[in-house]
Specification:
This protein is an all-alpha fold. The protein is built from five helices and no strands. The longest helix is centred in the middle third of the chain and has 42 residues. The chain binds prephenic acid.
């Protein structure tokens, strides 16, 4: 079967594809190297997220025991402004930084709430922070 340009655009990279198209071998090799970096970055991000949630769970316990609310908008306003600035300095679209912040803080607050409902017991989160 002949290959049209639209077929080509739907092609994903695998060894057979690379062998069948030696003219793209350089691109395939470069993509593979970049994917190794992407995998390393994803590993680091997941490890950092695990540490962040372990840390915010400790904050959740302290808040529950002290009778503080899960949410602190003053702190969040500071984080919004700070991450916006850091994103721009780093060359990242600040919308992505805000999406990240919104995601982690929302999840942290849900966990704070669960800890508070369990009377300050972080065991309610089981093995997952
Ligand atoms: O710093 C706090 O007070 C937290 O509870 C942590 C955290 C966060 O995930 O960074 C979560 C909820 C608050 O609204 C603000 C920040």
């Amino acid at each position: 079967m002949s290959e049209t340009s639209s077929d080509w655009q739907r092609t994903t990279i695998d060894s057979a594809q690379a062998a069948a198209h030696p003219e793209t071998a350089q691109a395939v090799a470069r993509i593979k190297a970049l994917r190794q970096s992407i995998d390393n970055i994803d590993s680091a991000v997941i490890s950092l997220l695990a540490e962040r949630f372990k840390t915010t769970s400790q904050v959740g316990v302290l808040k529950a025991n002290a009778g503080f609310a899960p949410e602190d908008m003053k702190r969040e306003d500071y984080q919004i402004e700070r991450l916006h600035r850091i994103a721009i300095e780093a060359g990242l679209d600040p919308e992505i930084a805000e999406k990240y912040r919104e995601f982690v803080v929302t999840e942290a607050k849900k966990r704070h709430q669960r800890i508070a409902e369990a009377g300050g017991d972080p065991g309610v989160l089981d093995v997952f922070a």
